[in-house]
Structures are given as C-alpha cells and as structure tokens.
Protein: Phosphatidylinositol 4-phosphate 5-kinase
Organism: Rhodamnia argentea
Amino acid sequence: MNIQHGVGRKEYGNSDMYEGMWKEGVHEGSGRYTWNSGNTYVGNWKGGKMWGRGIMKWVNGDLYNGFWLNGLRHGSGIYRFADGAYYFGTWSTGLMDGKGTYYPAGSKHPSLKKWCSVGYNDKGKTMSSHSLSLAFEESTAPKTFIKRSYSEKVSMGGLLRNSGRISNRATSLDENWSLFDSERELVSHESSSGVPEVPEERQDKMQDDSSLVYEREYMQGVLIRERIRTYEELMHKTKQKNKLHGKEPKKRPCMDMPLGDRSYYLKLNLQLGIRYTVGKITPVPKREVRSSDFGERARIRMFFPKKGSQFTPPHYSIDFYWKDYCPMVFRNLREMFKLDAAEYMMSICDDDGLTELSSPGKSGSIFYLSHDGRFVIKTLKKPEVKVLLKMLPHYYCHVGDHENTLITKFFGLHCIKLMGGRKVRFVVMGNMFCTELRIHRRYDLKGSSLGRYTDREKIDENTTLKDLDLAYVFRMDKSLREALFKQISLDCMFLESQQIIDYSLLLGLYFRAPEQLKALLSLGGAMVNEESSSTGNGPTSQGELLIPSKGLLLVTHEPNSVSTTPGPHIRGSTLRAFSVGDKEVDLLLPGTGRLRVQLGVNMPAQATRKLIQEEVDSAESELFEVYDVVLYMGIIDILQEYNLKKKMEHAYKSLQFDPLSISCVEPKLYAKRLISFLERVFPANDEVCQ
C-alpha cells in the first residue's frame, strides 16, 4: 500500500538514519536509529517509539542498557556514565525510580556479563537479555531464538531476533547485517572514550576507599535515601539473599513433574485451553444465566491429543484433558467487567507467553502473569475450587449489583490433567497492580497482629508487607473516604454471608516525590490548615481539611482527557469529591499526567508517619513525615471458608501470642475487626492522628 513494511533503511532530511524493521510505515521490531547529533539507539521499537530492550549511547559517552517504554527509560537497566561510574537500578517514565546501586568510577562492580545474563522488566518478568551483555563485553551472536505460542511455528531467517512474523522470504539490504552486528558496532568504539573497564584482577588490588558503593532509593528522580557500603558488604548481603531464596521450595501436591517440563507444558496447555474455551463460547448468543449454568456439572470437558482431533488443533505439548467450569457464567462476567474477548485471548495466549512468579504467600500456589501484566493465573486446591463454585451464584449477583466492588475479579476457572499426571486447577483473575503509576509499596492487611510483620532482612522493593509494617495513616477527601468505606462494608457483608474468612485488603502506594520530606504538624493539624489556607484551599465551614494542591490536584472529570478503558481489576464509575463541589473528578499529577479516579484506583491521599523519638532531636514537639500518595486497593484471598473446629483449635493455640485472635473465629467478627483496623488507617480528617 505504498508504505514501508518489513526490513529497510531510511535516511531522513536532517541526516538522521534508521535501519531495521518497519510495520505499516512506522518503526516496529528491532532496529537501529542514529541521530545527526551522534546519539545512537539499538534495540526494540513499537509504534515508532523505543519500546522493550535497547541500548542508548550518547555522544558524550554515557550509555544506558535496559528497558524502554513509549520512548522513555522504564524498567530495569544499567547506566554507565562517561567517567566510568555505573548505576544498576530501575526507571519510571524516564526518571530514576526505586532502589538501585551506584558504583563510582574506578570502584569494584559486579561482573556485567553475569548481571546482564538475566534481567527483569518493570512488571517483574524474567527475561533473557543477551543484548544487554553485548553492550559491555564482546561475544559471538547466539543462535536465533524466538518465543512461540502453541498455535504456530514461525519460520524465519537469521536476520533479526525479535521479529516473529518475518518469513524466510524476507531479505536484508545487506546480507551480513543483523541487530547483533549493530550492537557490537555500537560498543566497538568504547575504547575511544578513554574509560576502559577495570579488570577483576586489578579491582581486587584496589584500596579500601575505592570499594565504596552507594545503595540509593529514588522517587521520580528525587534521591530520598542513600546508604554507603563497601563492595564486600554488598556482596555478602547478596549472597545471604541468594541462600535464602535458594532454599528448597515446598512440595506442591498438584505437581509431580520435573520443574522445567511442568512449567512449560502447563503454560502451553493453559493457552491452548483458554483460546479454545473463549473461542467456543463467545459466538454463542448472550443470554441470562440459569441455575443449570452453575455448579460442578456445568462444564466443558475436552481431550487435546498432540496430533489434533475433529474439535482441537494439533499442538507441540503433550496429550492432556481440559475442563472449563461454568463457561456461560464466566463469559457473562467478562462482559460485565467490560472485557473484550479478543483482548482477553491475546493477553494470555500471546506469543510472549506467561511468566511464572514466586508465591507471595504460604499456600504453595503457582502464579502466572500474562505478558502485558493485566491478568494473574493462580493454581487452586480442590477445596478452594469447591468454595468458588459454591459461592459463584451469589458472587455473580454481587458484582452485578455493585460495579464499584473491591472484590477480586474472576474471569475463568479451569482444570488441566496431563496424561498420567494429577489434576491442576487454575483461576484467572485481574491484576490490581497493573496500573499507570509505579507501585512503590504494597501491603496485605488483615486487621490482625498475630505474625503480621516482615523480617527486615527479607524486605526488598517487591516485598508485600503486612499490618505491623504499616507506619502510615492516610487522610482522604471526605466523599472519597465515605465511598470507600461504604463499599468495603458491603463487600465484607457479602463475604460474611458466604462464611468466608482470612481475606485481605491489598493496598498499593505510589509516592509522589515530596518537596519536603519532613513537615512539622501539630496534633490538631493546625500547621496543615495554615499551609492550606495560604494556597486558597483552607478548611471549610464544617472543619473539613482539604488536600493541598501543590502535589496532587483533584479537578473536574473530563472524559476526553483521561483513559476510560476498563482495567483488569476495576470497572467502576468515576468518583465524586467533596473538595470539588461533589463533582466527578480526575487526578492531576503535575508533570506526569491526568488519571481517572475510581474506587480503589488512582485515589489521592496524604500519608503521615509519626517519627519515633530516636529520629528527632527535640522532645518538645512531635515530628511527622507527610507524603502525597496515590492509593490502589482490592480485596483478595476470598476462597477460604470458615471451619469452626479448625479455627477454634488455631485460635486457642495462639492465645498466648495474641488474645484478640479468638475474634477471627467467626466471619462476622473477622469482618468487624478488619473494618475497625482500616478506620484507624484511614481516619476522618477531623480525627487526631494516632
């Protein structure tokens, strides 16, 4: 159609040049772009922008090697400064964000080849990053490797690694050109920069002062914490973590295959089964569900032989049986959650596949994450499946009556049985942390104190913390808080009616980079009131404290200015804010963007933490840290049914540790305690901070 598509080289009028893959007139796939200024990028592109893994070298000698999103550094990466210093860390929308380690010029640093052999993107997905190591050390190009879905075997030449849709007919402008050659060429001039890498033999002989490294934490480009360590201390800490994570995992009774084969076949079979199920049920005319659509008998059972059959396609897995529970119910739920069937299939069944995650809890379940991070797939035990099927009719009615519900969204319930193996049951859920903003802290809150803390040595950026780890209270707009607690009460009443306990409120925090990390507040909030008055947003006649506008600003909702696409976790309506005349609102983050405010999504608040006596110099006044934060939350783990005998035994055994644990025996008291705890965490603005 007279537009660039495939492999090509283009030189622009301003002397910029691009060489690589094109799709419908824009850069798409692997390619190299050289600016007339001398800056060069080699890596992946999407929609004409740098997207995925890539290496950027600036003419001043700086070099970034890591992940990109929408043309900006986003995710994990390594930045090498012109003077030879290195920073290993994470970025968010082009800014340093999160924890990382800075190695000054001439100091020891880990083997770059070892560190770059495996990387992680911004969603925590493990990925092969051979191209990262190429930026620093020469190596021979590996054999071409691509990820394949069950539905196709892609035929391709050796030209480009990441282009899964190129056939053998594709030809290069230069037979010997490849992305790997470009990467080697990019770094072949490193010697001219005058900053050679220090060999490990010489590093070992350096003086002690040259082995200092800096553990840093950034918040949207602002350095908020720094700790100086020696290289040996850092390596010792890393080894201890590796030992901790290297412990033999608990045996999972549902799995009896070798780890590699088990994971590969399960993921492949999940993709096969979900594509078959969604493709089979979607064309059926929509109708209201009936009582016969619920229960264990409402299922589709199909055998998937490797060679294919009259009803199933051939595939590269092993023979297996597939069972889909209540297909009509979950089809209607997906539509109720405004989820497009094609997007659902492409998210889970895409060529990039599923990523296995480590279990954050003690259940021993296996978790898979879709390639775009929108969906989480979790293995279930047989009792949990029975609880979900029993609860499903009431769940269907509840989410239909309450579009703002915070309860986990379920999209499908399936079972796989490999030939000669045991049954493995899965549920597909929405990922509540698939958000537009980076989640800096996450908490699993149950309203209990028994064992609800995390060992400090085990805490890292991705750790899910617990009740006793939460040192903040959150002050919100009056209307937003009322809407939140109204829905939490409704959801807890529903779970109570289903005799469900042990569920949690999962809370995610995005911290806005503060202009001042510490602020002096009186107990009554007088200084905050005074500060707010100076900006024209002082307390109202009712004494309501409004959120200062300098960090986060609530503005009248404009549908054309924000994304209204339903997320995988929340589909609710736009919320109204008391501070904007009870109108529907958007959240404006200066310099970042404009977001739609929904229940449990993009909810602004002020997080206040009271400093302990050791952190202050004077005892005459109390000091607080105040942050602008954006909240994300949802109710999870709702498949644990109340068992009186078991819970009584557990409660009485734990009395010596937590006398209040007896109150969690009954679902009604469990819900009451959780709500009571949350009321202390989210106090009304006229309440004293405790």
Remarks:
- The chain is about 20% helix and 30% strand.
